[in-house]
Structures are given as C-alpha cells and as structure tokens.
Amino acid sequence: MTDTARLAEAVARLRAGDVVAFPTETVYGLGADARNPAAVARVFALKGRPTDHPLIVHIASAALLPRWAAPVPPAARALAAAFWPGPLTLILPRAAGVPDAVTGGQPTVGVRCPAHPLAHALLEACLAVGIDGLAAPSANRFGHVSPTTADHVRGEFGPQVLVLDGGPADVGIESTIVDLSRDAPRVLRPGMLDTARLAAVIGGEFAPAGADAPRVSGSLAAHYAPATPLELLPGDALIARIQALSATGIPFAALVYGPVPEPPPAGLQVLRLPAEPAGYARALYARLREADALGVARILVEAPPADLPWLAIRDRLRRAAQGSGRS
Ligand code: TXA
Ligand code: MG
C-alpha cells in the first residue's frame, strides 16, 4: 500500500468508528474520532485502561481549540502560539458537547496539536471529512512502556490495529501536560519542553501539582513499567550493584550513559544511552523494551543527573522502577 492509500484507509477506518495508531513526535498514539463515544470506548477496551482516565484530543491546528475548550484562557492562546504544533498538552475547561467518554466525566479536556508531519496529515485529512479531533492515548496497553516505533505498537496490539508508520519518535517521551483549568497554572506531567520557557510565555511561575490535581494516569506511581524488575541507581551505587549481582550468577542488564567495568562482568549485558537529555529521551523507551526482551532477571538503570533538563526522564524512570516486575 502507498502512503496515500494508507492514509485514506486510516481515515476510512476512523470514519467507521474504528481505531488507528499514528506517530507523533512524542510517542505513538492510538486514535479514535473524539466525537464518537463508541469509537473512544474501543480505545479504552484495547488498552485495558480504566474508563475514568481522560484522553488527550489531538487537533490539526490551534484554530480548532474553541471547538473543544471554552472559555479558552489567554494563557492557553499564548502557549499554543509559542509551542504548537509540538509536545505540549493543555488541560482546559471543556466546551459543550465534548463527550464524557473523552474527559472521563471531568469538567476539563486535554488538547494537543502534534508536530509530526504524518500526524498532521492525518488530522487534516480527518478534518476534511468532518472529524475535528482524535482522542488518543499512548498506543500501549495500560501500564506498559509507551511505543516510540510502529513495531512497538504492532507488538502491543497485533494485526487488528492499522498502524501508520512515521519512523522512530523524535522526542521519545510523552508531552508536557499543563493544567490551565484552575486558579493557577500547573505542570501535571513534565516533558522535554523546558518549564522555564513555558513559564516565561505565561509570565509567571507554575504552582505545585498538588494532591487535588485532576486524575492523570501518567501520574500513577506504577506506570511506564517493564515486566522485569528495574532498579534505578546513581553511578557509584550502580558499579557496586553490578559487582554484587555478577557474583550471584544471574543474568542482568544495565542501561547506562556513563562508564561501566570493561569487559562487562559475568552475567551483565550493557545497553548504552546518550549522555545528553534529548538523545537519552529519544532512545529510552526502545532500550527499556530491549532490556525487557532479553529475558534477564533484573534491569539496572544508571540514575540520570539531578538537573532540570533531565527532570522528565527522571520522572519516567522513577515510575518504571516502581511499576516494574509485575507481569
Ligand atoms: O505525548 C503524549 O501526550 C501522547 C501522544 C500520543 O500525544 N499521549 C499520551 O496519552 O501520553 P496518555 O493517555 O497515555 O497520557 C495522557 C495523560 C493521561 O495521564 C491522562 O490522564 C491525562 O493526560 N489527561 C488527559 N485529559 C486530561 C484531563 N482533562 N485532565 C487531567 N488529565 C488529563
Ligand atoms: Mg500513556
């Protein structure tokens, strides 16, 4: 099938109430017509996700925002103008007529305009046939690591789901989520966008997320997790742990960006990641999946630096460690 034919097939399926997986610059999404509650229900069923967890509505341009959110606060217009299309999701008061299936029954809606050219082409083609938003979570089963390639998605759902292949995701971890629906702006989920740049655009600081924050499944402790038990260790503790595990004779893997003993001690398989945050984020989920597929007893991960550019990466790794080893 040509790319054009695949896109046409994707639109036809979405019109018929089916789901389609598509690339975004962050991770692959599992999309459905956001105005069709039965189609949205299929997304939840495929993912195995609790139905009170809201989905992000993906739109072709910021001009469509008022169809989904009302009122659209000035800060939302400013952030959309500065960062869309891009890896930023805005939580806003929902407009009339946004299905409960999308919002999990909450008074707010999450909206994002993705930058990936194929996502954009799909959203434009959908708009041309009257579909003005695709509700899409990451295209993985609930609790699994998000997919950053078309093959990852096929591994999650098999041949039943049409996957548009846009190559490996460029950002590699999920969008930054900013909540503008309440008194003060809050970052609900950090991403690779610099929060200082976001704060500068809205002319202020972010409030802490707080215990009363709306439900975000990405904020559950156990999320983004591989099946193999995973330990997150700073560099010196990592070396000691490598020696200790090697002495037990069990097979294990280490995801590192710094030096490890050469040659690797018995039992250890080393998977390397770039030592700068953009490259690390881009490769992280693929490496986690590779490590999980090795059949080792344990995955050790070298903890990234504590400074701001690594914040979102540390967030995902912490959750991966907490949720790992359960299946
Ligand atoms: O990068 C991304 O955001 C990817 C790509 C596909 O766009 N999507 C993604 O979707 O990560 P998902 O569903 O896996 O994570 C979105 C998070 C969820 O934790 C959900 O609870 C939260 O966004 N969310 C969506 N709508 C919300 C709302 N109205 N209020 C609070 N949280 C919301
Ligand atoms: Mg997800």
Overview of the structural elements:
With 327 residues, the protein is α/β, with parallel strands linked by helices. It contains 11 helices and 13 strands. The protein has helices spanning 3-15, 37-47, 65-68, 74-83, 100-103, 117-128, 150-157, 195-202, 235-248, 277-293, 311-323, and strands at 20-22, 29-33, 56-58, 88-93, 108-112, 134-135, 162-163, 176-179, 186-189, 230-233, 252-256, 268-272, 298-302. The strands form 2 sheets. Strands 7-1-2-6-3-5-4-8-9 form a 9-stranded mixed beta sheet, sandwiched between helices. Strand 1 and strand 2 (29-33) form a beta hairpin. Helix 1 (3-15) crosses helix 6. The chain starts with a helix and ends with a helix. The mean pLDDT is 94. The protein binds threonylcarbamoyladenylate and magnesium ion. The site of threonylcarbamoyladenylate (TXA) has 27 residues, from strand 4 and strand 5.
Give the cofactors and ligands: threonylcarbamoyladenylate, magnesium ion
Distance between the termini: 36 Å
Please report the number of helical segments.
Answer: 11
Q: Using DSSP, what is the number of strands?
A: 13
Portion in strands: 15-25%
- Identify the strand order in the major beta sheet: 7-1-2-6-3-5-4-8-9
Helix content: 25-40%
Largest sheet: 9 strands, mixed
H and E string:
HEEHEHHEHEHEHEEEHEHEEHEH
Uncertain residue ranges? none
